[in-house]
Amino acid sequence: MTPSGKLPRVVILGCGFGGLFAAKSLDGAPVEVTVVDRTNHHLFQPLLYQVATAGLSAPAVAAPIRNILASQSNATVICGDVQRIDMARRAVVLDGDDEIAYDQLIVATGATNSYFGHNEWEQHAPSLKTLDDAYEIRRRVLLAFEHAERETDLAKRAAWLTFVVIGAGATGVELAGAFAEIARHTLRGEFRRFDPRNARIVLVEGSDRVLPTYPASLSEQARLQLESLGVTVWLGRQVTGIDERGVQMGGDTLVAHTVVWAAGVAASPLGASLEVPRDRAGRVIVGEDLSIPGHPEVTVIGDLATLPWHQPPVPGIAPAAKQMGSYAAHKILQQLKGQSVAPFCYKDYGMLATIGRNSAVAVLGKVKLSGYPAWLLWLIAHIWYLIGFRNRIIVMIDWAWAYWTFERSSRIVTGERRRP
Q1: Which of 261, 310, 299, 281 minimizes the C-alpha distance to 136?
Q2: Domain count along the chain
Q3: What tens digit of pLDDT does each residue of 258-301 get?
């Protein structure tokens, strides 16, 4: 209890994996939990690229936060945009100058996209972080084929049929592989003036290999699997400009009307309001209990946190955010009992990245897998960790149908049809 006799107020900012697991871990605890998120839904981000590539519909990878926490009587959900954190007054300031007081604060607002100082590129190369981003990418990709059907000039048609993905991390690799499947299989036979299989998918990476956080042998396997799907992989190429014509790399221009950015992320700007040390990417440097210096009541988790003392480094992936969320809740409960907690320790359960049909790579401790075994493991893991039984069933049905028919169930697009 607080000195006033009221239950301690725990405010959680962000309902991604970290925030959601923190909230659920406090179910039934003698605290008042308030979850604040700028959207009304929790997003299963590892499958967001499938919404962008018409493989799944939005409800299959997202669920209303209120519905998820409906049975948790000590949890209140607020849909709002956090403007800043006033640590001196222990208050969170929302849009409209509304305030929420806290006794314990968990900040899990994640990361946003980084264009490395070139924010003007965003209008020409959308990134993939939200459902709105996924809708925009899907609209651009599918309408590019529609524009190509109307175009009679071969050079202009080629520009519509060139798709560029910048960044060969997990998201970039997954997008490139899915674009290739759309062109080679999903749309096959649907157009009369051109063959969709002639579409050009180019994956551009500034380093010397794809999936640079994976072992070199698996990176090479991923590159070979991408090329077998029809993806052109350009390594060691630095992007110097993106505009309506396409992508510039030094003196070379790759003419393309559809460009997707998957090259960089930066921490949520909310971290700056904490006024504590941050790294070059804007991530908050936290202590061994994930709190910030001078404020043990403030815990920062997920992609917004960096743990320089932890070896090996904690990756910015969903399992890490989940573990941090559960740890943050456990720490609060132990503090209420007057007990201390051991330092946070990340348990590495491996990394998975899919490339396309029957193609993936996986690292499980010392075990390295590629091809069909890794792909099967990727399928099972992602279905298992989806939020909600209904979502698991829907995804399994959609994936089974797509596997046997090559069809993608969510190809409806809305929005303005633009031509350069």
Answers
A1: 261
A2: 2
A3: 999 999 888 999 998 898 999 988 999 999 999 999 999 999 99
From 136, 149, 151, 174, the catalytic residue: 174
Question: Would you place residue 416 in the very low, low, confident or very high pLDDT band (cuts 50, 70, 90)?
Answer: low
Residue 338 near residue 324, CB atoms below 8 Å: no
DSSP 5: S
Residues ≥6 apart with Cβ < 8 Å to 408: 53, 54, 55, 182, 186, 402
Peptide bond into 30 cis (omega under 30): no
Q: Are residues 215 and 295 in the same domain?
A: no
- Angle in degrees, 0-180, between the axes of helices 372-385 and 389-405, rounded to the nearest 10: 150
| Beta carbons of 21 and 321 less than 8 angstroms apart | yes
Question: What is the residue range of 323's domain?
Answer: 9-38+80-113+265-336
Please indicate, yes or no, if residue 48 is contained in any of the structural domains: no
Query: Please, what is the average pLDDT of the chain?
Result: 93
Query: What is the four-CA torsion angle of 368, 111, 241, 149, rounded to 10 degrees?
Result: 80
| pLDDT in the model for residue 417 | 52
The single-letter code of the amino acid at 56 is L
Overall size of the chain counted in residues: 420
Assess whether the previous peptide bond of 312 is cis (omega < 30° from 0).
Answer: yes
Q: The CATH number of the domain where 140 resides is what?
A: 3.50.50.100
Q: Which of 68-77, 224-233, 267-276 has the lowest mean pLDDT?
A: 267-276
**Residues facing 93 on adjacent strands:** 84, 99
Tens digit of each residue's pLDDT (9 = 90 or more) over 158-216 = 999 999 999 999 999 999 999 999 999 999 999 999 999 999 999 999 999 999 999 99
- DSSP strand pairing (62-64 vs 75-79): unpaired
What's the pLDDT tens digit per position in 131-151? 999 999 999 999 999 999 999
Place of tokens 């169930």: 409
Crossing angle of the two packed helices 216-228 and 170-181, in degrees rounded to 10: 20
SS3 of 327, please?
A: helix
Kindly state whether residues 146 and 251 are assigned to the same domain: yes
Q: In what order do the strands lie in the sheet with 367-370?
A: 351-356, 359-364, 367-370
Q: Which of 47, 28, 19 is nearest to 385 (CA)?
A: 47
For the question of residue 174 being annotated catalytic, the response is yes
Q: And the tokens for 301?
A: 């988790």
Strand order in the sheet with 99-101: 82-86, 91-94, 99-101
Q: Where are the alpha helices (DSSP H) in 182-269?
A: 216-228
pLDDT value of position 420: 45
Q: Are residues 247 and 141 in the same domain?
A: yes
Note whether 64 and 40 are within 8 A (CB). yes
